[in-house]
Amino acid sequence: MFSLDGRVAVITGGSRGLGREMSFAFARAGAHVVVTSRKIDTCEAVAKEIQAECPGIRAVPFACHVGKWDKCNALVDFVYSEFGRCDILVNNAGGSPLYPSLSDISEEYFDKIMALNLKGPFRLMAAFGAKMCAQSGGSIINISSTETVNPNSRATIYGAAKIGLNYLTEAFSSAYGPKVRVNCIMCGPFLTDISKAWPMKEMEIEWKRSSSLMRAGKPNEVVGAALYFASDASSFCTGSILRLDGGAGRATYRDPKFNAKL
After folding, report:
1. Whole-number Å distance between alpha carbons of 46 and 59
2. What's the predicted TM-score (pTM) here?
3. pLDDT class of 201 with cuts at 50, 70, 90
4. CATH code of the domain occupying 8-197+218-244
5. Where are the domains of the chain?
6. Which is more confidently placed, 47 or 216?
7. Residue 217 near residue 246, CB atoms below 8 Å
8. Residue 167 known to be catalytic
């Protein structure tokens, strides 16, 4: 049910973090993968590692800034020139650089964050999805964030963009059904490269206080959800938003009588 044999998967932001884990996981499940991010050298390095580990699998690097419409179009053209099809699209690329205050957010910053986290995924879903409809179908997976349900002043524009991505998930699932399934993984805290800038001691205390699993996620823990949505295991699932956050914010009160860890 979880096999991806012979399928072609495109993973944006595929050279590091969650994207890297999904690139390897899809290749191990039998899919040929297009690893794309803004820096071609990192894409090439990951593609080389995948091909070394998975003989018979094609792993192709491609540099793409998904925040730019023409670059998204170029990615679509490249994939179809190389493989003639796309069966899986993962809109994983995203980001939210820190800013000093809401009043200091510039128009340039606003447009950049919206382009990377919302405009690019929209364009890729529209273009790849239309082509999937013309073939045997496909699966689109959007990577969103629990910032959408936990608003805060640290990631205001990013959270707003990801709320838009949640909406697009459901809208595209309707527009491109029944041949294309569109689902979303709404991620909580994961220990990727970005976590190196976190005040880890304070955050670990907070996770133990308010998270059911009392920790952040490991990057490879996104793989199960991604394989589910990419494969036939989720053949009757579309327009869904899966919260993958270890139960963050849902354990604010712990009773020692019922919790063995306390």
Report:
1. 8
2. 0.93
3. confident
4. 3.40.50.720
5. 8-197+218-244
6. 47
7. yes
8. no
